[in-house]
Specification:
This protein has four helices and seven strands, in the order αββαββαβαββ. The strands form two sheets. It has a four-stranded antiparallel sheet.
Length: 242
C-alpha cells in the first residue's frame, strides 16, 4: 500500500512538472506545431441597377374621418387599376393610416393616407406612369430608388466569390511563406455576401417637385456588390531556423 501511494505521488509530481513545462513554453511564446492564421479577402464589383422602385401616396384631410377615408380609397383604387394596367409594373399597397390632427387656431380634422408601391425594370415606362398618377389621380410622390435585381445580383456574387477565394488563397500562401511553413491547408472558412434589403424611399430624382405634367427624370446608377471570404489557414509544421 505504501509503495502504491509513493508511485502515485511520483506520477502526480511528474504530471505537474510536465504541465508547468507546457505552460512555460506557451508563456515563452514557443510556436505551436501547426500555427493557425486567420485571414480575410474581399472582392467588389459595381453593377448597374436594373430595378426601379417608386412610392406614391394618396392623402386627404377632412373633419369627417369617413369622408377623408372615402376620398383616399377612391383615388387609390383608380391609381391601382392604372398601375396594374401598365406592362411590366408590379403594384401593391401599403401603409394605410388614419389619425386625428389638432393644431392651435384650426379645427380638429382627420388625416388619412395610403401608399402605392411600384416596381419595374422599365425605367421610362415607370417614370411616365408616376407622372400620370400625380397628374390624373392626385397622388404624391414620396420617393424613388433603384436596385439590382436578384438574378443580376446572383450572377455577380458567383463571379465575385471565385475572385475572393483566389485572393484569400494567395494571402494564405503568402502567410505560409512568411512563417517559413512548408505549406498550408484551409480550416474553417466562411463566405459572406453584402447584405441586401429593399431600401427606404429616397429622393434621388431630378424634377421631383415639377408640375405633374412634366415627366420625372430618372437615372438608375450603380450598386456595389461585395463578397468576403474569411477563415483559417492551418500552416504545416514551421521549419526550425538554422
Amino acid at each position: 500500500m505504501q509503495r502504491q501511494l509513493s508511485a502515485l505521488c511520483t506520477v502526480l509530481v511528474l504530471g505537474a512538472a510536465g504541465g508547468n513545462a507546457a505552460a512555460q513554453a506557451l508563456a515563452d511564446g514557443a510556436p505551436t506545431p501547426q500555427p493557425i492564421v486567420t485571414l480575410s479577402a474581399s472582392a467588389t464589383r459595381s453593377v448597374a441597377n436594373d430595378r426601379m422602385h417608386a412610392w406614391l401616396r394618396a392623402e386627404a384631410e377632412n373633419a369627417d374621418a369617413t369622408l377623408a377615408a372615402s376620398d383616399v380609397n377612391a383615388r387609390m383604387a383608380r391609381a391601382l387599376a392604372r398601375a396594374k394596367g401598365a406592362a411590366g409594373v408590379e403594384a401593391s399597397t401599403a401603409g394605410y393610416s388614419t389619425y386625428q390632427v389638432a393644431e392651435q387656431n384650426r379645427p380638429v380634422r382627420w388625416r388619412v393616407s395610403q401608399t402605392l408601391v411600384l416596381e419595374s425594370a422599365d425605367f421610362p415606362g415607370l417614370s411616365a406612369l408616376v407622372s400620370r398618377l400625380q397628374g390624373n389621380d392626385g397622388l404624391l410622390l414620396s420617393g424613388l430608388d433603384f436596385t439590382v435585381s436578384g438574378a443580376s445580383r446572383l450572377v455577380a456574387e458567383d463571379a465575385l466569390t471565385q475572385q475572393a477565394i483566389r485572393s484569400w488563397q494567395q494571402r494564405a500562401q503568402s502567410a505560409a511563406q512568411g512563417f517559413g511553413a512548408g505549406g498550408w491547408r484551409a480550416g474553417r472558412v466562411t463566405i459572406q455576401t453584402s447584405d441586401y434589403a429593399r431600401p427606404p424611399p429616397m429622393m434621388r430624382v431630378a424634377g421631383i417637385a415639377n408640375a405633374a405634367s412634366a415627366p420625372v427624370a430618372v437615372e438608375g446608377g450603380n450598386s456595389d456588390i461585395t463578397v468576403t471570404v474569411s477563415g483559417e489557414a492551418i500552416l504545416d509544421t514551421v521549419r526550425s531556423p538554422r
